[in-house]
Amino acid sequence: MGIVNSKVPFPLLAKNVKNNEIDEKENRRVLSLVLDFADEVFNDIENDTTSILVNQLLIEAEEKLLSSDYMESIELYTKASILGSVYANAKLGLLYLEGYKSIQSDYRVSAGYFSIALKLILLIPPKLWNFCHLLEIIAGLSELYRFHLVYQRDYHIWFHGIKLMKKIETIFQDPNFIKLTHEENQKRRAIRIHMTYCFALNLQAEQDFVTALKMFEECERIGYCGYSTADKLVKKAHTQYRLLEPRVPRVLPICASCNYEAKKIDEIWKLIVCSKCQTACCTRECMIKHRAIHNNLK
Prior knowledge:
Structural class: mainly alpha
């Protein structure tokens, strides 16, 4: 599938990809999911009938995509998708994201295929994850969230994607998560940057600006990883933080008199701030009680 880099943001769509670049040893882990992981041993998958069929479908689809019969590749990728191919679902997601020749972009269909790909990945033991594939899927979803999906109009698609990405993030945060090589860890960081940025956009849409700020700050904290699409988001997160910061009250949103905690942003803005100690009160009555404490201290 390739690597997400500055020259080819989505290598799955690169027109110069050759059939032999589908490296069986590298990609067989995630091509097919009709597998038995009960014993957590991954043996002789190349001899599995379904895996052989999936690989044949993918090779033929790659050939068709580069020919005048490229529309037939969609049918072949769809067949492989039904058989549980992460690669096929990711490829379809990218094709409908970017469009290809007469194939028109369809952002909802693209999001659907990316979501299926993530569901399949979540069924695979993390030690068998292919981080190149996962990064391309998450980067594709990230582009959809940033430029094409609308929170209210596409709420169910939006929410479902966020839910799946949170599951990936939970696995990444597990202290027992597999040991990674330096290159794999850089991909993991890139994936986390894309997902965290999407989490921040979701929180903004929900008007939870306080937590959204924390997510943009987390993007900066993860830092540059060497993958251009993710590194650009680190810079954008810094800009978004600066733009959003004035919209977030700086006081602790807990009434100094009755301990009422304001959670919604509109409730926080309604708090009355004491000019002497910069603490907040929820009503004028609570502020009068609070000021009495200052007067008694004189």
